[in-house]
Write a structure and sequence with these properties.
By secondary structure, this protein is an alpha+beta fold. 17% of the residues lie in helices and 31% in strands.
């Protein structure tokens, strides 16, 4: 399987990641990953090694599709990491959430850390003036969203994470009582799932870095879900 490449130059590769593939190997799993596919497609990335994740500058969850940045050199990787850390990378996602959000836009600003009830999940904690507790893994998380379209039981959003925490969008939307449609980890018991949706509805649609802009259209499986929702009254 060859990955779809949106852009390539002498220091950067931009991948349009399909859903259903893990970016980086977790634990002892031997399943195919974006990293292994990349090395097969671009053998020169092997020289970056596991230390630099074979060039992968950031990650997307297994069932999240969309734009993924890959560095082709050690220097480019370090530079991209610096830009992510300095919040100089702009990212936008298309997201369908359960229920109807009445606001047109909103900023969510919390701490985010591992849930004590389920170690697989992240949990949003209020700021409350408390200091960041690195020992507990609490880190600042900021997410901005605006409404694109409302359906009978769902709301389509454009989401802009200002920070890059694990599961940030999924955890933040769940904290509002509006989990991402189809999210099996953060969804609530007996949560409805739109017809034809076989994963969580989250797509990395836009990324801007170093003055370059990259876009990924909504995949056909998610487009079909929206078309079916539009037909409901």
């Amino acid at each position: 399987m060859d990955l779809k490449i949106i852009y390539e130059d002498d220091r950067l590769i931009v991948v349009d990641k399909p859903a259903g593939i893990t970016v980086w190997r977790e634990g002892m799993s031997q399943e195919e990953t974006i990293a292994s596919l990349l090395v097969g497609q671009f053998p020169e990335l092997e020289s970056l090694g596991e230390e630099r994740r074979y060039g992968l500058a950031h990650r997307l969850d297994k069932d999240t599709s969309g734009i993924l940045l890959v560095a082709k050199t050690k220097e480019a990787f370090d530079q991209l990491q610096e830009q992510f850390a300095a919040r100089k990378v702009e990212k936008r996602y298309i997201c369908l959430v359960e229920g109807t959000l009445k606001e047109e836009q909103r900023l969510i600003h919390t701490l985010l850390g591992r849930s004590s009830a389920d170690r697989r999940k992240q949990r949003a904690y209020p700021l409350d003036g408390r200091p960041l507790d690195k020992a507990r893994g609490l880190r600042e998380a900021i997410t901005e969203w605006k409404t694109l379209k409302r359906f009978a039981q769902y709301t389509l959003l454009e989401v802009t994470p200002k920070t890059g925490r694990k599961h940030q969008i999924r955890a933040h939307m769940a904290s509002l009582g509006r989990p991402v449609a189809g999210d099996k980890l953060y969804g609530f018991k007996n949560q409805r799932v739109p017809e034809g949706l076989n994963r969580h509805f989250l797509h990395a649609s836009f990324l801007k870095i170093e003055g370059k802009e990259f876009a990924s259209p909504l995949p056909q499986d998610l487009q079909t879900v929206l078309e079916k929702l539009s037909q409901l009254k």
